[in-house]
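> call design_seq(struct)
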């Protein structure tokens, strides 16, 4: 990266403190969720996982029955 005033490139080790200063500034901008919001979102995700898991289990069971019927009939 070139220095805006002199046009010189800064060395890698000179840019490291600026990087961490920028990271700290970005962390201050984060809107952290409340405990209630985090818990609610976690429960929604777990519930969705259960529903999708039950759906996949049902489709698997149905396809297993169909394949077994086809193989027994042959």
């Amino acid at each position: 990266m070139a220095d805006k005033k002199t046009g010189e490139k800064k060395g890698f080790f000179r840019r490291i403190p600026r990087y961490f200063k920028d990271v700290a500034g970005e962390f201050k901008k984060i809107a952290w969720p409340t405990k209630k919001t985090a818990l609610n979102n976690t429960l929604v995700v777990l519930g969705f996982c259960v529903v999708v898991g039950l759906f996949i289990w049902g489709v698997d069971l149905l396809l297993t029955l169909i394949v077994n019927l086809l193989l027994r009939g042959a």
